[in-house]
Specification:
This is Transporter. It is found in: Membrane. Belongs to the sodium:neurotransmitter symporter (SNF) (TC 2.A.22) family. The chain crosses the membrane at residues 37-58, 87-110, 130-156, 168-188, 208-231, 252-275, 295-319, 340-360, 380-402, 422-444. The protein is mainly α. It contains 18 helices and 2 strands. Strands 1-2 form a two-stranded antiparallel ribbon. Strand 1 (368-369) and strand 2 form a beta hairpin. The longest helix has 38 residues, at 296-333. The protein starts with 7 loop residues before the first helix and ends with a helix. The mean pLDDT is 91. Bound molecules: 4-fluoro-L-phenylalanine (PFF) and sodium ion. 4-fluoro-L-phenylalanine binds next to helix 1, helix 2, helix 10 and helix 14.
């Protein structure tokens, strides 16, 4: 089914490339800002440790055992009672929904590569006005960059992802981490650093609402690429003797560390410049450029490198968002990769265009449903509903439908018995109950 096989290192790199993306550097900081800081971070971290990690391992197990796409994995892995499940199908839509707004944001990053290389805004106010102006008025410019991001993503996927992606990740992930660490050292010298630590790590639970809890849980899935079959699809082409336990742990750890570093850097700048933490999706585009500006030519260079690395982090994730749906279509309908990608491409492009114009002042009327713009609808429905739901299904399937013996056979050598038991307990009880409770609370109360 899968022609190419990952090497073991290749898988960890590709999974890390999928996980580490705009979710860490764009979305995590702005969601933290909007949801009042520490309490949001606390719930997010709890979800990563107690739910995300277990679901990550469970998805890897399903992929590794089925060696098929995300939908087939549910259908072809026999249950204890010899029956098959049919409930994984909706996951293939999640990818299209996420990709549609994800490529728009990569487009913004492309624009900021250019901004960083030329003229950076000198104050947070100026940066805010520039970003706001782009989103709400510059339809043509945004469409241009969105189209570029779209073409690059689909081109890479059309090439068969494994080798290209492995190599890009190998170079660019360390570059991104390097730049972030440099920025962190710089942030440590600024006044706002202490405030940023307090904001991120001292929870104020009076700021917690059921919506912010759901956002934190949903974001934990989004950031680890869980709940739509990406990790399943990637682990379908793993060598037999791969250690799924260490790969899950390392990817989750890396992803979390990068998000936290990004948060520390960005909030240090926000507080040092006296800016507003709750400014929404523009946060990273507003808080960083004035800092780069202050550093003179060096700032142009660092800013340029930062946005380039961020663009690549975005693209390696975008590719992993297309792949599960593409793989499913190729297997299921026996069509070629190019055919599958053409169908996906048209759908994504149309949805993406609607999402883009839903932010534009003069056009938003055409892309507003029930008073909400398409961009926000796509973001909310995927992160807060579809991904947690996908994660719930994975947990239930691995926890209840699959034979325990098969799990022990696959994982037993790679984790102590006690750890296995904790994981199994989590996948049967903690994850399903946690996800269900949060979703029911948010959607019905
Ligand atoms: N994990 C990616 C990020 O944090 O940017 C986004 C993502 C990739 C979500 C792949 C879902 C997915 F299947
Ligand atoms: Na991530």
């Amino acid at each position: 089914m899968h022609g190419e096989r990952f090497s073991k290192v290749g898988f960890v790199l590709a999974a890390a490339g999928s996980a580490v993306g705009l979710g860490n550097i764009w979305k995590f900081p702005y969601m933290t800002g909007e949801n009042g800081g520490g309490a949001f971070v606390f719930i997010y971290l709890l979800t990563i440790v107690f739910i995300g990690l277990s679901v990550f391992l469970a998805e890897s197990v399903m992929g590794r055992l089925s060696r098929g796409d995300a939908v087939s994995a549910f259908e072809t892995l026999p249950q204890k009672n010899g029956q098959y499940w049919k409930y994984g199908g909706f996951m293939v839509f999640t990818g299209v929904i996420i990709l549609s707004f994800y490529t728009i944001v990569i487009g913004w990053i492309f624009k900021y590569i250019y901004v960083a290389a030329t003229t950076l805004p000198s104050s947070v106010e100026e940066a805010g006005a520039a970003f706001g102006g782009m989103i709400t008025t510059d339809t043509v410019g945004q469409m241009l960059f969105f189209t570029l991001a779209f073409v690059i993503t689909f081109y890479i996927v059309s090439q068969g992802i494994k080798r290209g992606i492995e190599r890009i990740n190998l170079v660019l992930m360390p570059l991104l981490v390097g730049i972030l660490v440099l920025l962190l050292f710089y942030a440590m010298t600024l006044d706002g650093f202490g405030d940023s630590l307090r904001f991120l790590f001292i929870p104020d639970f009076s700021k917690v609402t059921s919506t912010s809890i759901l956002s934190a849980v949903g974001h934990a899935f989004f950031t680890l690429s869980l709940g739509m079959g990406t990790i399943m699809t990637y682990s379908a082409s793993l060598p037999k003797d791969s250690n799924l336990v260490t790969s899950s742990l390392s990817v989750a750890a890396l992803d979390t560390i990068i998000a936290l570093i990004a948060g520390m850097v960005i909030f240090t700048l926000i507080f040092s410049f006296g800016a507003e933490p709750a400014q929404g999706a523009g946060l990273v585009f507003i808080s960083l450029p004035p800092l780069f500006h202050d550093l003179g030519v060096l700032g142009n260079i660092i800013g340029f490198a930062f946005f380039v690395a961020l663009a690549f982090a975005g693209i390696t994730s975008a590719v992993s968002i297309v792949e599960p749906t593409a793989m499913y279509m190729i297997n299921r309908f026996k069509i070629s990769r190019v055919q599958a990608l053409s169908i996906l491409g048209v759908t994504t492009y149309v949805l993406g265009t609607l999402a883009l114009i839903s932010n534009v002042e003069t056009l938003k009327g055409y892309a507003t449903i029930f008073g909400k713009g398409v961009f926000d609808i796509l973001d909310f429905s995927s992160s807060s509903i579809l991904l947690p739901l996908g994660g719930l299904l994975v947990a239930l399937f691995v926890g209840y439908a699959l034979q325990k013996d098969r799990l022990v056979a696959l994982l037993g050598d790679h984790m102590p018995k006690a750890a296995f038991d904790v994981w199994y307990f989590s996948i049967r009880y903690v994850a399903p109950l946690g996800i269900a409770a949060v979703m029911i609370n948010q959607l019905f109360f």
